[in-house]
C-alpha cells in the first residue's frame, strides 16, 4: 500500500477534527491542505508509527501548534449545532481543547492523545479534566441513572451532582427506567446492562431512544454484550470497575453536541 493510499482513508475524519478544532470549515481545510503539502514535499519524514492514523494526527498537531487560528463561529451554512458546540469549545485553552476532541470526537486513548500532542499521559489527563470542568460549568441537565447495585448507583449519583447536574431518578429495572424517563424527561442516561429483575438496560435505553434522542452512557461489567455486532454499538461505553474521571469526561463529552446544551 502506498503512502497516499494509507492516508486517503483518514482524510474525511481528519477534516472533521480540523473543523471542530479551528472553529470553521475554511480554517480546518487550510490546515489539512498545508499538512498534505508538507507530506508530499518530504514523504520520507512521515513515519506511520504506531499506525498511519495516529501518525497523521501527530503531523497535523505539529502544524497546528505553530499557528492557532479560530473564529469560533464557522460558516453561515454550517450546522447550527456544530457552530454552537464550537462556541463552547472556543472557551477552552487550545491544547485542552485538542485533547478533548482527540478523545471525545476521534476516540483516541489518553496514551494515544499524549503521543499525538507530544505530552505525557499525566498532562493529558490533567488537561482533559480542565476541559471537562470548563464545559461542566456551562452544561446543566438532568440525568437518569439505570443501575441495580445500590452502592454503584450512589457513587454515580454523587459524580452527577458534583458536576452540577440534577439526578432525574434511579431505576433498577427496564420498566422502571422507561417510566422514570417519561416522568422526568431526562437529558442524559447512565445505564448498566444487567438489571435487578433480569431485564436488560440495553433494551431500556433503546426504548427510551425511541421516545427521544438523548445521549446514553453504558457503565457495565459486561462490555462484550454491547460489542457483539448484533446491535448498534454505543458511543460511550465504560467498563466496571470504573474511574471517576472517566465517568466525568464521558458525561461532558456526551453533552457536548446535545442541542439544548450547546447553544
TrEMBL record:
UniProt key word Thylakoid: no
Keyword list, A-Z: DNA-directed RNA polymerase, Phosphoprotein, Transcription
InterPro entries per UniProt: Bact_response_regulator, CheY-like_superfamily, PhyR_sigma2, PhyR_sigma4, RNA_pol_sigma_r3/r4-like, Sig_resp-reg_PhyR, Sig_transdc_resp-reg_receiver
Organism for this UniProt entry: Sphingopyxis flava
Sequence ranges assigned to domain Response regulatory in this UniProt record: 142-255
One GO CC term, this protein: DNA-directed RNA polymerase complex
Gene3D superfamilies xrefs: 1.20.140.160, 3.40.50.2300
UniProt protein name: DNA-directed RNA polymerase specialized sigma subunit, sigma24 family
UniProt entry tagged with the keyword Phosphoprotein: yes
Gene Ontology biological-process entries: phosphorelay signal transduction system
Modified residues (4-aspartylphosphate): 192
Amino acid at each position: 500500500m502506498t503512502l497516499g493510499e494509507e492516508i486517503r482513508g483518514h482524510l474525511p475524519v481528519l477534516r472533521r477534527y480540523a473543523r471542530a478544532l479551528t472553529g470553521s470549515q475554511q480554517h480546518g481545510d487550510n490546515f489539512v491542505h498545508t499538512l498534505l503539502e508538507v507530506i508530499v514535499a518530504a514523504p520520507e519524514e512521515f513515519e506511520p508509527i504506531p499506525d498511519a492514523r495516529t501518525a497523521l494526527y501527530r503531523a497535523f498537531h505539529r502544524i497546528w501548534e505553530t499557528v492557532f487560528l479560530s473564529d469560533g463561529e464557522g460558516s453561515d451554512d454550517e450546522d447550527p449545532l456544530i457552530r454552537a458546540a464550537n462556541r463552547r469549545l472556543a472557551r477552552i485553552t487550545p491544547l485542552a481543547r485538542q485533547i478533548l476532541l482527540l478523545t471525545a470526537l476521534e476516540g483516541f486513548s489518553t496514551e494515544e492523545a499524549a503521543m499525538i500532542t507530544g505530552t505525557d499521559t499525566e498532562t493529558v489527563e490533567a488537561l482533559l479534566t480542565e476541559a471537562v470542568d470548563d464545559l461542566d460549568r456551562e452544561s446543566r441537565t438532568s440525568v437518569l441513572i439505570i443501575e441495580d447495585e445500590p452502592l454503584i448507583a450512589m457513587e454515580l449519583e454523587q459524580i452527577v451532582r458534583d458536576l452540577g447536574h440534577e439526578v432525574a431518578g434511579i431505576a433498577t429495572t427496564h420498566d422502571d427506567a422507561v417510566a422514570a424517563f417519561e416522568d422526568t424527561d431526562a437529558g442524559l442516561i447512565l445505564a448498566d446492562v444487567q438489571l435487578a429483575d433480569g431485564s436488560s438496560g440495553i433494551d431500556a435505553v433503546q426504548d427510551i431512544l425511541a421516545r427521544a434522542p438523548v445521549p446514553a452512557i453504558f457503565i457495565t461489567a459486561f462490555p462484550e454484550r454491547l460489542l457483539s455486532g448484533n446491535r448498534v454499538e454505543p458511543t460511550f461505553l465504560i467498563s466496571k470497575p470504573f474511574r471517576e474521571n472517566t465517568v466525568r469526561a464521558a458525561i461532558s463529552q456526551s453533552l457536548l453536541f446535545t442541542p439544548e446544551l450547546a447553544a
